[in-house]
Specification:
Elements (H helix, E strand, L loop, with lengths): L17 H4 L4 H15 L12 H16 L9 H30 L9 H26 L4 H6 L7 E2 L1 H4 L12 H14 L6 E2 L2 H29 L1
Antiparallel strand pairs: 1-2
Helix pairs in contact: 2-3, 2-4, 2-5, 3-4, 4-5, 4-9, 5-8, 5-9, 8-9
């Protein structure tokens, strides 16, 4: 005889230690460092001056995060979340600065790319790639309260439903998404301009995916169209 369900309560805690479930810093650190380096290779007029500001600020904030939460990411501290979101916002803002200048130059026929299709495609590619990294970091940080919160309470109110969560026979019982999963989500959202195999079930997540897809579509369309026009 099956027992009747009891009253709804807090989400269950998956067995195991949070410091064992927490993910390593190196994938996120690699993404942050890559975003800083990508900004440096942009044309001078698209970079934040002086050229060292973006990479140095990002590296310094990254060091603060790693020192504040060494080993695996499992410390739930408000100041750590604030620093994390400052890093992501800084990457987003610096890339937005570059993206606005790129779109403006394309629409105004700026001489910078008047006869340089290769340079235009390279700049567009750098801006697009940085955009993918920035949105991947936002998804990673906002889903279920961030990486540290997911390590403590993996099953708490997910914003994204990954295939591993639906096909449990192919994934461990304590599976939780890592940064690579959010990077994949961001890449396919920016590439396919449509929902991926990951389902967004929170409104903010759906809106964020829409913004990323729209941004990528605008940049890709303008850059490719302008490059084709130059080649012809």
């Amino acid at each position: 005889m099956r027992a009747s369900p009891g009253p709804a309560g807090p989400s269950p805690v998956v067995p195991g230690r949070a410091d064992e479930r927490g993910e390593h810093w190196w994938p996120v650190a690699s993404a942050v460092v890559s975003a800083g380096l990508l900004h440096v290779v942009l044309p001078v007029s698209y970079r934040v001056d002086p050229v060292w500001v973006v990479p140095v600020v990002l590296f310094a904030l990254l060091v603060v995060l790693v020192v504040g939460d060494p080993g695996r990411i499992d410390r739930r501290k408000t100041w750590l979340r604030v620093v994390t979101e400052t890093v992501i916002a800084f990457i987003t803002a610096s890339n937005l600065y570059a993206g606005i200048h790129l779109v403006s130059d394309i629409l105004t026929n700026n001489k910078l790319f008047a006869d340089n299709a290769t340079g235009l495609l390279a700049t567009g590619g750098v801006t697009w790639a940085t955009n993918v990294i920035a949105f991947a970091l936002w998804y990673w940080d906002l889903d279920r309260g961030g990486a540290a919160a997911r390590a403590h309470r993996p099953a708490t109110e997910p914003a994204f439903v990954f295939p591993e969560m639906q096909h449990t026979e192919y994934a461990p019982a304590d599976w939780i998404p890592r940064f690579a999963d959010y990077l994949s989500l961001s890449f396919w959202t920016a590439t396919a301009f449509s929902p991926t195999d990951v389902s967004a079930i929170k409104r903010w997540a759906k809106l964020l995916m829409m913004i990323e897809a729209a941004t990528s579509l605008i940049v890709a369309t303008l850059v490719v169209a302008r490059a084709i026009n130059i080649l012809q």
